[in-house]
Amino acid sequence: MDTNHITQLASLAHPQRLALFRLLVRRYPDQVSAGELADAIDARQNTLSSYLNSLRSAGLIAQTREGRSLLYRADMEQSAALVGYLVADCCRGRPDLCPPLVQPTPSGEKPMSDRKYNVLFICTGNSARSIFGESILRFEAGDRFNAYSAGTYPYSELNPFAVEMLAHKGHDISALRAKNIAEFQTPDAPEMDFVFTVCDRAANEECPAWAGQPISAHWGMPDPVKAEGTEAERKLAFQQAYAGLRNRILAFTALPLESLDRISLQHHVDDIARDMESQ
């Protein structure tokens, strides 16, 4: 067995290092600060540094510096190489011997039929950002997409600033309500084609795998609910969150979904987050 792959597997053999790596994969293509990672996996800084150094030495994550902060991102190329090695070596090039494996759609094959696609937006409280995502997608492309939203720890009521702004912009708010993510994980729930997390906390949480292996991405947005200051300043935070999500959704709906294979489509939805962050 290749020495580098032995090192990578050994690094992932520790439960918290594996949890840390999985978190960074969920947040990809985000770069996440060490402080946020420590909070997410409840680890002390010196312990976290040890975990990060191990994953970096194995080539599974990359580190960059931004000012005085160290930021970390999963190295998806190395991760894909490790999975490919296991399939080729352990399964002897026969994935049927090592189920279940995600089988990417062959390049050039249309991955989705001509139907309405189901899209779920997730944040923690399901009171503003994910509600924006649901409302915007339904308004902009409701003929092509069924839009849903949910929260990992939903509030009992929607944020009044969010509801007021949606109504002012012409959205139908009559059916909007805060929903728990569990509603979409039952056997009779609609099977999702796309799942987008729109807050960092929700993306950091470990959730069960979605049925049907939907394409997922993290489109993190600052939480307008936590904005402070005057009423005008707080409303501005909601306007900015709405505008940021609308830009992402318009870019998403412009994609030629029927002509992209699964791998290309995943790259595109990741690029939407990365491109919008750089603007």
TrEMBL record:
List the Gene3D superfamilies: 3.40.50.2300, Winged helix-like DNA-binding domain superfamily/Winged helix DNA-binding domain
Where is each HTH arsR-type domain found? 1-94
Q: Which GO terms describe its molecular function?
A: DNA-binding transcription factor activity
Task: Tell me the keywords, alphabetical order.
Answer: Arsenical resistance
- Record lineage: Bacteria, Pseudomonadati, Pseudomonadota, Alphaproteobacteria, Rhodobacterales
According to UniProt, the name of this protein is ArsR family transcriptional regulator
Any Pfam family: LMWPc
Give the record's GO biological process terms.
response to arsenic-containing substance
* CDD domains, A to Z: HTH_ARSR, LMWP_ArsC
